[in-house]
């Protein structure tokens, strides 16, 4: 059967393919009140992460080594705020999985929590600031609160979707979007939107 590191690499490649196809949509969202580069950043960052993961897998790297390399590559290639945040998120997920582990239900919830913690530690956003945290935080809460493991994934995804949707009614306060924050009213946050896209892809695979 497949190693965890190989599954992570396949997942990153699927995310990169998805985000390549969403580049224009995410760029248009970011152009409403930001600088319009979220699509290109997510595309370039995820592509670099997937390439690096594939190289590290060929060198027999475990999941942690692979994800921290992929995270650094994402951050470097994407530039921008979200690139740094996604880099930190991947590295934190790797820290939970370790280089030897097989991956289990517990691993998913701990990985989600560690990813959120890393984003909050680096970016300082809280729910309501109109960022990716508005989708990620409720997803983590819903995953942990699910009554049965089989429901956790779908509950988390639904919560992320509702969270991203809720950002339409908010004015951006952090990052590049801030100077033109008022213009963002009525448009969902680009980073929350792309986070939901990634979770949808992952939920279809695990
Ligand atoms: P930049 O803002 O540097 O151009 P991107 O356009 O790629 O970077 O990413 C913008 C997204 O990053 C926002 O839509 C938001 O979701 C997210 N973001 C910005 N600042 C923060 C922050 N401090 N904490 C969490 N997420 C943030
Ligand atoms: Mg931008
Ligand atoms: Mg930018």
TrEMBL record:
<feature type="domain" description="DhaL">
    <location>
        <begin position="6"/>
        <end position="204"/>
    </location>
</feature>
<protein>
    <submittedName>
        <fullName>Dihydroxyacetone kinase, ATP-dependent</fullName>
    </submittedName>
</protein>
């Amino acid at each position: 059967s497949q190693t965890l590191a190989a599954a992570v690499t396949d997942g990153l490649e699927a995310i990169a393919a998805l985000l390549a196809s969403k580049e224009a949509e995410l760029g248009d969202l970011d152009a409403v009140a930001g600088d319009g580069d979220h699509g290109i950043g997510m595309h370039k960052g995820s592509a670099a992460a997937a390439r690096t993961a594939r190289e590290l897998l060929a060198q027999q790297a475990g999941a942690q080594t692979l994800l921290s390399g992929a995270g650094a590559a994402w951050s470097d290639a994407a530039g921008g705020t979200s690139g740094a945040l996604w880099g930190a998120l991947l590295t934190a997920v790797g820290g939970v999985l370790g280089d030897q582990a097989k991956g289990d239900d517990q691993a998913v919830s701990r990985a989600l929590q560690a990813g959120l913690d890393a984003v909050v530690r680096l970016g300082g956003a809280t729910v309501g600031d109109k960022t990716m945290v508005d989708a990620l935080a409720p997803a983590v809460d819903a995953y942990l609160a699910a009554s049965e493991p089989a429901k956790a994934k779908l509950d988390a995804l639904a919560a992320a979707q509702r969270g991203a949707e809720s950002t339409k009614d908010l004015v951006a306060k952090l990052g590049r979007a801030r100077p033109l924050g008022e213009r963002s009213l009525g448009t969902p946050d680009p980073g929350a939107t792309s986070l939901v896209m990634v979770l949808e892809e992952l939920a279809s695979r695990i």
